[in-house]
Specification:
Layout (H helix, E strand, L loop, with lengths): L4 E11 L7 H15 L3 H7 L4 E13 L4 E11 L4 H13 L1 H23 L7 H14 L6 H9 L4 H12 L9 E3 L9 H6 L11 E15 L9 E5 L3 E9 L5 H4 L4 E13 L4 E12 L1
Parallel strand pairs: 7-9
Antiparallel strand pairs: 1-3, 1-4, 2-3, 5-6, 5-8, 6-7, 8-9
Helix pairs in contact: 1-7, 3-4, 4-5, 4-7
């Protein structure tokens, strides 16, 4: 054999819903599950030491109506070992231990879904069932050379975490009609309980950033406090139409505080940093940086 080989396994997911599932929800869930399955390569690499996954391909082998069942075929193009004998040994291990590979995929999907879901659940909202199921997934990984720390490292290294959150929500949508459980065929312990589905949002909503920066040019700035010897303390004021309550100010490093000290009104370019206040559901200015003025 050459220095690469292909292995495949199955992933079967069963939405136990008795409610009708829209075509849109089925399509969205299939697309999201495909993306999630394509993120399982690092789990395979970690579980089978010495393996490198070069490509992951996902196919649908069957969709069963009634309560919705999706049957996927997942193929991995693997390599990694330059030594032909060692590579052949790894190939034999993965193909003979197909149940182990299937477990890796099921754990990987569960871990990615819960990671995505945890990103999108608002602070203060019910999440204890989601956290409990996440612990179940981490524990299951310990049986296949994937301890909790290894799984967390893989998840933190994933790119585009917003997409993971969106895919996790969309993957659950066929079960949201009646908040039914989601079974993973062959792994009863990895069944996603209805209580977890109930905690998941109906639709993906991007999380609100805690802070944001906005740049403004040629705005009217009223200075209520200044310090001729400092650029980063002793300054405060407002930006008309932008930050109209007294807010801390700083000066950009290229500005001389002595030249601006004593002036109470200027036209300036500023950067306003605001923090989101959950109680009021709005952003409030926290810092005004003056970058240029006239």
């Amino acid at each position: 054999m050459d220095n690469t080989f292909t292995v495949q396994t199955e992933y079967k997911i069963h939405y136990t819903t008795e409610a009708p599932v829209s075509i849109e929800d089925i399509i969205d869930s299939l697309r999201s599950l495909e993306k999630i399955l394509k993120r399982t390569g690092p789990f395979v690499e970690k579980a089978f030491d010495g393996i490198k996954v070069y490509d992951t391909q996902v196919y649908i082998s069957e969709i069963v109506s009634g309560s919705l069942k999706d049957h996927f075929i997942v193929k991995y193009l693997c390599g990694g070992e330059e030594n032909a004998q060692k590579l052949e040994e790894l190939f034999e291990k993965m193909t003979k231990d197909s149940g182990g590979l299937k477990t890796v995929v099921s754990v990987g999907v569960g871990a990615v879904m819960m990671y995505g879901l945890m990103q999108v659940l608002p602070s203060g909202e019910p999440r204890k069932h989601t956290e409990a199921y996440n612990s179940v997934v981490l524990e299951a990984g310990g049986d296949i050379n994937l301890n909790g720390e290894s799984i967390k490292e893989i998840l933190e290294a994933q790119r585009d975490k917003k997409s993971i959150a969106r895919d996790a929500v969309d993957a659950m949508r066929p079960a949201k009609g009646d908040n039914s459980a989601i079974k993973i065929e062959g792994f009863n312990s990895l069944t996603i309980p209805s209580s977890v589905v109930a905690e998941a949002p109906d639709e993906y909503t991007p999380p609100i950033p805690e802070e944001k920066e906005e740049k403004y040019k040629n705005v009217k700035v009223l200075i209520s406090a200044s310090d001729r010897d400092n650029t980063d303390k002793g300054w405060a004021g407002v930006v008309i139409g932008v930050a109209e309550t007294r807010t801390k100010m700083i000066l950009a490093g290229n500005l001389d505080p002595k030249e601006l000290h004593g002036r109470t009104q200027i036209t300036a370019n500023v950067i306003v940093t605001s923090r989101y206040k959950k109680a009021k559901k709005e952003y409030q200015p926290q810092l005004i940086e003056i970058t240029a003025y006239q």
